[in-house]
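During the second half of the funding period, the structural biology subgroup turned its attention to how the target accommodates small molecules. The most pressing case was fe (iii) ion, which had performed well in the primary screen but for which no bound structure existed. We therefore specified the complex as follows and requested a full 3D prediction, including the ligand pose.
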Amino acid sequence: MATKNQESTGLLKLLEDQVADIYYAEKQLLKALPKMAKAASNDELRTAFTDHAEETKGQLERLEQVFEALGKPAKGKKCPAIDGILEEGNEIMDEFADDAALDAGLVAAGQKAEHYEIASYGSMCAWAEQLGLDEVAALLNETLEEEKGADEKLTEIAESVVNIEAEEGDEEDEEELVDAGGGSSRNSKANASNNKSTTKAPAKGASAKNGKR
Ligand code: FE
Ligand code: FE
Ligand code: FE
Ligand code: ZN
């Protein structure tokens, strides 16, 4: 039980600290997601970012309920991790602005943010359960599931379209090289990509499935 004028310690203190951290992170994400949506050229990807921005509003409200249940004012604490993740996202948006791989880079940037959130909500949820704070645990778990859903959606988009479009962009570049008298090793690659739309090819890079080629 959190009483107002008493300093928390241990796991409760840690929970309060991390709730403030993620509250700040969600606010930054609420600003960043519409920018990522605007940068995306794939419709599905743009919609995924826009939908998740809407979801993020609800997540902020849920965190405000968490603060209330903990008897604390809703106040964020600077999270250098999310600032860094979003800064890298901005770098991708700049450096790949005119590149066919931009969307693949945006998926990766989005997934880095989602994975940070999943780690944070997962831990906080376990602590709240441990502390017997059932209402808090339920609120955090609801958001955790949304973050997992957002992450899975991005994997799906990467595997079905974005990575393939990025690679086709590469092939167009190579074609220009061929026209200009460059190498001629693109036939096997073109054949490989023809199969992809029907066989659900493994994603290259931008999905969260590490270790898969
Ligand atoms: Fe979130
Ligand atoms: Fe943080
Ligand atoms: Fe990095
Ligand atoms: Zn999220």
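Two results from this model are relevant to the next phase. Helices lie at 10-39, 43-70, 80-95, 102-130, 134-179, 187-199. Residues 10-199 form a domain with the Ferritin fold (CATH 1.20.1260.10).
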